[in-house]
Design a protein that fits this description.
The protein has about 200 residues and is of the alpha/beta class. It has helices at about 15-25, 45-55, 70-85, 100-110, 130-135, 145-150, 160-175; strands at about 5-10, 30-35, 60-65, 90, 125, 180-185, 190-195. The chain contains 7 helices and 7 strands, in the order βαβαβαβαβαααββ. α1 (about 15-25) crosses α7 (about 160-175). The N and C termini lie far apart (about 50 Å).
Length: about 200
């Protein structure tokens, strides 16, 4: 799919990786982008910055808590009303907050808008990326989690910039096959991975 003149709905686009997605899509010719994010985000500021950089009217901000289905539906409807259609959906919204685990599941897992319409579905899994969520995640993990044990040998981990992940997103939109899963890590080009149908292997007694 070509990106030029396409209409995009982007959840969680007020900052971090989401904002980098919006900027990179506009750099590659996206026509209009609707940024959906929560009320206390910097969504209005993000839209203003992008409109200043790429021209007025390219980006709008719509308040939306994606953990609430009615608000998500309303965000879709408003995007289509404002722009006259929708070509690309980027479901980027997510939080890292074990303390509020119910909200984390509702935000990260529940929104799933897919019907058998021939729409191409792609998955991008960013590795360690320098974002505000990552920097604040340790203070929001449960006490029972050993961060050092979870991460392992940190010397082997390289934190990448959000722009690197955004470059990978553009490549996927243009070139990736339907239902494929991709990884962006260490600031290197994205690569496709294969996930087996069964992760468990039966061991004979």
């Amino acid at each position: 799919m070509q990106i030029k003149n396409k209409i995009v709905l982007l959840t969680g686009g007020a900052n971090g990786i989401g904002f980098a997605y919006a900027r990179e899509l506009l750099r590659n010719g996206a026509g209009r982008i609707a940024i959906l994010d929560v009320k206390d985000s910097s969504g209005k500021e993000a839209a203003s910055k992008l409109n200043t950089e790429f021209g007025q009217g390219h980006v709008i901000f719509i308040f939306c808590d994606v953990s609430k289905p009615q608000e998500l539906e309303a965000g879709f409807a408003e995007t289509i009303k404002q722009f006259g259609g929708l070509d690309i959906l980027i479901n980027n919204a997510g939080i890292m907050d074990d303390v509020r685990w119910e909200l984390m599941i509702a935000t990260n897992v529940m929104p799933y808008h897919y019907e058998k319409t021939g729409v191409r579905i792609l998955t991008l899994c960013p590795g360690l990326t320098d974002t505000e969520s990552l920097r604040k995640s340790q203070e929001r993990m449960l006490d029972i989690i050993d961060v050092e044990e979870l991460v392992g040998d940190s010397s082997n981990l390289t934190s990448q910039k959000v722009d690197s992940v955004a470059h990978g997103l553009v490549y996927m939109i243009r070139s990736a096959q339907n239902s494929t899963v991709w990884v962006a890590e260490n600031g290197e080009p994205v690569y496709q991975i294969m996930i087996p149908d069964r992760l468990l292997t039966k061991v004979s007694a």
